């Protein structure tokens, strides 16, 4: 399963490209109360949620989560980690025994603390090497994804 949250579409582009390679179910996380579509307001809302360690309610429900062994988990870097809806996700489902492959779109900060933060909330999952993509990844995105999948031993 490829599961992602994307505010401005970059993570969505990366998720779609991964999906082309590996197939499976592609699921976009939607929120009951979406972040503002205005950049500055969204930045403020995100900062507040991060500071409060909020758990924004997810509109998306994943049916039969148990059936998935491997979860590709995508998100933008927000304030050095993942957006708080990813925390809601990690606490709403049982990730013990699952393999997580994180992928993160960023504006220069790379993965930030996001992988350590995933490990903290999913301590009994196996976390593979994460992929950091600068914004939408540009022309090299398909090649970068191929190389990442190969490194992680995923059959594409
Ligand atoms: C609220 C907010 C906070 C952000 N914080 C960071 C940051 O700390 N480090 C960074 O490299 N990029 C940061 N960015 C830039 C995004 O990670 C980048 O634009 C990313 O490509 C967005 O992915 P998306 O289109 O899937 O939402 C931030 C963007 C927003 C909207």
Give a description of the structure.
- The structure is a single chain.
- This protein is an alpha/beta fold.
- The chain contains 5 helices and 6 strands.
- α3 links the parallel β3 and β4 (99-106).
- The relative contact order is 0.19.
- The structure holds flavin mononucleotide (FMN).
- Flavin mononucleotide binds at residues 6-11, 42-43, 46, 76-80, 105-109, 135.
Q: Brief overview, please?
A:
The protein has helices at 10-22, 39-51, 84-92, 114-121, 141-151; strands at 2-4, 26-28, 70-76, 99-106, 126-127, 131-134.
Topology diagram in text:
Layout: E1 2-4, H1 10-22, E2 26-28, H2 39-51, E3 70-76, H3 84-92, E4 99-106, H4 114-121, E5 126-127, E6 131-134, H5 141-151
The chain binds flavin mononucleotide (FMN).
CATH C-level class is: Alpha Beta
Kindly report the CATH topology. Answer: Rossmann fold
Computed Rg = 15 Å
Write down the domain tally: 1
Count of helices? 5
Say which CATH homologous superfamily is assigned: Flavodoxin domain
The largest sheet, given as strand count, sense and whether it forms a barrel, is: 6 strands, parallel
**What are the bound molecules?**
flavin mononucleotide
Strand content: 15-25%
Number of E-type strands: 6
Order of helices and strands: EHEHEHEHEEH
Summed over residues and divided by their number, the pLDDT gives a mean of: 97
The CATH architecture can be named as 3-Layer(aba) Sandwich
**Overall spatial form:** globular
Unreliably modeled segments: none
The helix fraction, in percent, is 25-40%
Helix/strand-derived class? alpha/beta
Q: What's the N-to-C terminus distance? A: 14 Å
